[in-house]
Specification:
A two-stranded antiparallel ribbon has the order 1-2. 0% of the residues lie in helices and 49% in strands. Strand 1 and strand 2 form a beta hairpin. By secondary structure, it is mostly beta strands. The protein has a domain of 25 residues. It is elongated, with a radius of gyration of 15 Å.
């Protein structure tokens, strides 16, 4: 998976996600991810 982080972000960050539906219970998840500072790479959704 490739994601984008704000310029200057590095270290450990918490990623929060919430999934909801009118016919099901809401589920929440939190995971700590490590952001590596580095060069900008092309590709992904924006080319």
């Amino acid at each position: 998976m490739t994601v984008r982080a704000l310029s200057g972000a590095s270290g450990k960050k918490a990623n929060h996600a919430v999934a909801s539906s009118p016919d099901a219970r809401t589920k929440r998840a939190t995971r700590t991810v490590r952001v590596l500072a580095g060069a900008v790479k092309g590709g992904g959704v924006t080319g």
